[in-house]
Write a structure and sequence with these properties.
The structure holds 2 protein chains of 2 kinds.
Chain A: E1 7-19, H1 25-30, E2 38-50, E3 54-58, H2 65-72, E4 80-85, E5 88-89, H3 95-101, E6 105-108, H4 122-132, H5 141-151, H6 168-180, E7 186-190, H7 198-215, E8 218-222, H8 226-232, E9 235-240, E10 243-249, H9 250-255, H10 260-268, H11 274-279, E11 315-317, E12 320-323, E13 326-328, H12 340-345, E14 354-356
Parallel strand pairs in A: 3-8, 3-9, 6-7, 7-8
Antiparallel strand pairs in A: 1-2, 1-4, 4-5, 9-10, 10-13, 11-14, 12-13
Helix pairs in contact in A: 4-5, 4-6, 5-6, 6-7
Chain B: E1 2-11, E2 14-24, E3 31-35, H1 42-49, E4 58-67, E5 70-71, H2 77-83, E6 88-91, H3 105-116, H4 121-134, H5 140-143, H6 153-165, E7 171-175, H7 183-200, E8 203-208, H8 211-217, E9 220-225, E10 228-234, H9 235-240, H10 245-253, H11 293-297, E11 302-306, E12 309-312, H12 316-328, H13 334-339
Parallel strand pairs in B: 3-8, 3-9, 6-7, 7-8
Antiparallel strand pairs in B: 1-2, 1-4, 4-5, 9-10, 10-12, 11-12
Classes of the chains: A alpha/beta, B alpha/beta.
Chain lengths: 362, 343
């Protein structure tokens, strides 16, 4: 546990595995799966989230980024590892302790249509966490709710309205007001802008940035939209099949991505400028993200990686500090030799660190 | 090809003018991008062209749709069916719901050529396998007998494209073809459409809300708002010198790589309009920063800026002049952007 004054949340070898069964004697007799099938949605993530920062978490669908966000708040139970917040391990906290901590840890959801109870008024929705945690201090809950609505840019007179009377962007503001109601320190924002129109996305991003400045919030901003992450995040973590494969300052990760996967992701983002688009060269990845059920051995990305060599199928790469504060998990790069294309051109094989896969299956 | 098209819907709230006057032509091998937010009428435009508007409540009330000289509006439903799927085809946004989950991929693909090209079962199957290979589905011979749920989102979108291209259509309408997909898969699909277009000379209408997607894919662009064409121009010109405040706002509200650290992202204030209750005057006026009295009172004129560049705005010429000035202003970061646009 390397928690220092600057770290708000520290994840240590966090795991969320879903056991799908299989591999037992009965399965063999009844024709079930011959091997035990495990979905390693989050597979040993070590990550420090710093006070006051926005950590962007990117990756393709199915890579485990939402599960990671939920596991921090125990909305999904971690199956291994620790989540340290204020010196306490949340992953092993009792449910009453955890409940207490939810005052500090909140979430904003992707779908502004499904995450608000349609039968409650907006006033009730925002007041609910205040009542639950008895935060009114004898004051007027109604007034606090109205202040919150104003804070997120909604008309304070609308407390009696129902969610369906609001647009998608407004609903997302309601979701943000609900999260802010308990004065949290940390918010997991799971794809908060994906369901919104372009002109509304900018509004919500600006609102979240303003609130962060005013209330000194820390965000884990989960998104598959690399342009949005580039804009809001201070640091970026790139996830692939349950693991963090690259981590660094947003500026450096986008300017000089180290991992072949990150390079491909960034090159795939369309740029709204026809002149640039005409000149760009894309790295087009082959195929889809493999199934997270018993993923490829070694480096999970080896099946799609243009630089993959035989060792990539055997060695599980560790997340190594390749450049100052810039980490990547790839055995073909090292702090001395950070450029994979140069290393590949020079015919170098394994230059980096990793742990050999001993045997598949847990 | 499309002249002053108007499609209205009768609703409890009154008449919704989903598409209210859109005109464009699309030459062979050209790609047109239609950009807009939800409710702007971009999808209805294309459903109208395909004669897929449910009637009632919808109705094409005005306009001329000509496809290779054929008056599409005058066609009987049987005649439409003969063209649709054969000479013009459509790819829908959601690959998860636009394939029939109960039928094998083979059945759904073969149906197209059996119907339109009179293929026998055997011919149709061979053709279907060839199409799946064309769109890059590995092991097409075996995968063809799978069901949609056995395919990933990107693969299903490829199946949709294979189906749409089965009869070598002259026009392909792609309605948000990559919105439901991850960026790496989006890049694959866009590359595929580009490649097929180059090989088969298909004309494409690409509907999207993503300005990045149209930038690299299209020859010309129509920007729609509240059922109206707000701006229409060749792609490069539209991005370089927009002549409409809404287009400018859209372009600025996309996170920009050259954007200075810590500055706020430009935001268009307000909400997308309720098409059933449009304000008087210009529909964008409540959200427009440069709106003046006249904008709130009178509907704006469709101003011609250049030969193929039009803008719906009282101040179109002024906005255009502004864009020209901004364009000529020195841009220090340009060289840097070209190396790595996101850096």
């Amino acid at each position: 546990m390397n928690e220092n004054g600057n770290t708000l949340i520290s994840l240590q070898n966090l795991q969320v595995h879903y056991d799908l069964g299989g591999g037992t004697l009965i399965d063999r007799i009844t024709g079930g799966s011959r091997v035990r099938r495990v979905v390693k949605a989050v597979d040993g993530v070590n990550l420090d989230i710093k006070r006051g920062e926005t950590l962007g978490l990117v990756g393709e669908s199915g890579c485990g980024k939402s599960t990671l966000g939920k596991a921090i708040l125990r909305l999904t139970e971690p199956t291994g590892g620790q989540v340290f917040y204020g010196g306490k391990d949340l992953a092993h906290a009792s449910s009453s302790e955890m409940r207490e901590q939810r005052k500090n840890l909140q979430m904003i959801f992707q779908d502004p249509y499904a995450s608000l109870n349609p039968r409650m008024t907006v006033g009730q929705i925002i007041a609910e966490p205040i009542r639950t945690f008895n935060l009114s201090n004898g004051g007027n809950i109604e007034a606090k709710v109205q202040d919150l609505m104003e804070t997120v840019g909604l008309n304070r007179r609308f407390t009696k309205r129902y969610p369906h009377e609001f647009s998608g962007g407004q609903r997302q503001r309601i979701g943000i007001a609900r999260a802010l109601a308990v004065d949290p320190k940390f918010i997991v924002a799971d794809e908060p802008i994906s369901a919104l129109d372009v002109s509304i996305q900018a509004q919500i991003m600006n609102l979240m940035e303003r609130l962060q400045r005013e209330k000194n919030l820390t965000y884990l901003f989960i998104s598959h939209d690399l342009r949005a992450i580039r804009h809001v995040a201070d640091r970026v973590a790139v996830m692939y099949l349950g693991k963090i494969v690259e981590l660094g300052e947003a500026k450096t990760v986008y300017a000089e991505p180290l991992m072949p996967y990150t390079k491909a992701l960034i090159s795939a983002v369309p740029i709204p400028d026809p002149e640039i688009e005409a000149k760009r060269e894309r790295i087009i990845l082959k195929g889809d993200v493999p199934s997270p059920i018993n993923p490829p051995s070694g480096c999970h990305f080896n099946t799609r990686c243009p630089y993959a060599i035989a060792e990539c199928r055997q060695i599980d790469p560790s997340l190594v500090e390749i450049k100052p504060k810039h980490y990547a998990a790839c055995i073909r790069i090292s702090p001395e030799r950070p450029h994979i294309d140069e290393n590949a051109a020079a015919g170098l094989g394994v230059v980096g660190e990793g742990t050999p896969e001993i045997k598949k299956g847990s | 090809m499309v002249n002053d098209l108007k499609t209205y819907f009768q609703t409890e709230d009154g008449v919704v003018k989903a598409v209210d006057g859109i005109t464009f032509t699309l030459a062979k091998g050209e790609t047109l991008g239609i950009v807009g937010e939800s409710g702007s009428g971009k999808s209805v435009t294309n459903l109208s062209i395909m004669r897929l508007i449910p009637e009632p409540p919808g109705k094409i009330v005005n306009g001329d749709i000509r496809f290779d000289g054929i008056d599409v509006r005058a066609l009987s439903i049987d005649d439409v069916r003969r063209i649709r799927g054969k000479r013009m085809a459509m790819i829908f946004q959601d690959p998860m719901t636009s394939l029939n989950p109960f039928l094998k991929i083979s059945t759904q693909l073969m149906e197209v050529t059996e119907l339109h090209l009179g293929h026998t079962k055997e011919q149709a199957r061979r053709h279907a396998i060839k199409m799946l290979e064309t769109v890059g589905i590995p092991d097409a011979k075996n995968r063809i007998d799978g069901y949609p749920h056995e395919f990933s989102g990107g693969m299903r979108q490829r199946v949709m494209i294979a189906m749409a291209l089965s009869c070598d259509p002259e026009l392909l309408i792609a309605d948000e073809p990559t919105t439901a997909l991850d960026v790496t898969i989006q890049a694959q699909i866009l590359e595929l459409i580009k490649d097929l277009k180059a090989r088969m000379g298909t004309s494409v209408i690409l509907i999207t809300h993503d300005l990045g997607v149209v930038a690299g894919m299209t020859n010309k662009i129509i920007v729609m708002y509240a059922g109206k064409v707000f701006e229409q121009a060749p792609t490069r010109e539209l991005f370089a010198t927009p002549a409409n405040p809404y287009t400018k706002g859209l372009l600025k509200s996309v996170p920009d790589p050259a954007h200075e650290e810590g500055t706020e992202l430009y935001q268009i204030p307000g909400l997308p309009p309720d098409v059933a209750h449009l304000p008087p005057g210009c529909p964008f006026s409540p959200r427009c920063e440069r709106a003046e009295n006249v904008c709130h009172r009178e509907f704006p004129p469709f101003v011609q800026i250049n030969e193929n560049h039009w803008s719906l705005c009282h101040f179109a010429k002024e906005v255009y002049a502004e864009s020209m000035r901004e364009r000529t202003a020195p841009n220090v970061t340009e060289a840097q952007i070209e190396l790595n646009p996101l850096a």
